[in-house]
Design goal:
- It is a single chain.
- With 214 residues, the chain is α/β, with parallel strands linked by helices.
- It has 8 helices and 5 strands.
- The chain has a 5-stranded parallel β-sheet with strand order 2-1-3-4-5, sandwiched between helices.
- α2 packs antiparallel against α3 and α4 crosses α8.
- The longest helix has 21 residues.
């Protein structure tokens, strides 16, 4: 979540109040554009706690509900539907680069900027494929996310692809032993990422209950 605005920059309390509202609204727009709907809704909740009748915030909250509902449509209702992808990366540029390719290829997309947000999404959704960075500000948290997915029976059919800035021999061996479906080195070409997601999905759907670790 964003750091609060420094109150000492404002002499007028009402000016500070308006600046906070604008700050939350701007960040909520940004999170929504990156398919980080959970984060956007949290920001709007903060805004509406300050200004319950804020028209633009209420409109955006309604629109985000529509964005989310479109992901809940059953596949038979969407001819081009190939599944739901969850993108997890603390670098917004990575998510922004991947989003158009996944959407144009028939994926619904949810995104998270950290593992905590990803866990919240996974508690509510069952994505078909997760693409996650390995390393976050707190360390190799992507490994923990992978183990959380693999330990949840409801997610047995979810494919998992790691993204890593440094894809060295040790990580490749460890990933294969853990049962990661694929590993890609960043920066990754969006079309390559989509192809990897398709390949991982085909393999997992063909044999979802195969052994996942050595």
């Amino acid at each position: 979540m964003p750091s609060p605005l420094p109150e000492d920059r404002f002499q007028d309390p009402y000016e500070f109040h308006l600046a906070r509202i604008e700050h939350y609204l701007e960040l909520a727009c940004e999170r929504r554009s990156l398919a980080q709907y959970h984060a956007a809704r949290r920001l709007l909740a903060r805004l509406l706690a300050l200004e319950p009748r804020h028209a633009e915030a209420l409109r955006m909250r309604h629109e985000i509900a529509g964005d989310v509902d479109r992901h809940r449509m059953s596949p038979p209702g969407r001819r081009s539907w190939h599944g739901l992808a969850l993108l997890v990366d603390q670098d917004d540029r990575v998510v922004a680069g991947l989003l158009p390719a996944f959407r144009s290829s028939g994926f619904g997309v949810l995104a998270a900027s950290n593992v905590r947000e990803a866990a919240e999404i996974l508690a509510e959704w069952t994505p078909d494929v997760v693409l996650s960075d390995v390393n976050f500000a707190g360390g190799s948290e992507g490994l923990g996310l992978f183990h959380a997915v693999r330990s949840e029976p409801r997610l047995i059919g979810t494919a998992f692809v790691f993204l890593a800035a440094l894809l060295d021999r040790h990580l490749m061996i460890a990933g294969r032993r853990m049962g990661v479906d694929d590993m890609l080195q960043k920066p990754v070409d969006p079309d390559v990422a989509v192809a990897a997601a398709f390949h991982a999905l085909r393999r997992r759907r063909a044999s979802p209950a195969r052994a996942l670790a050595v």
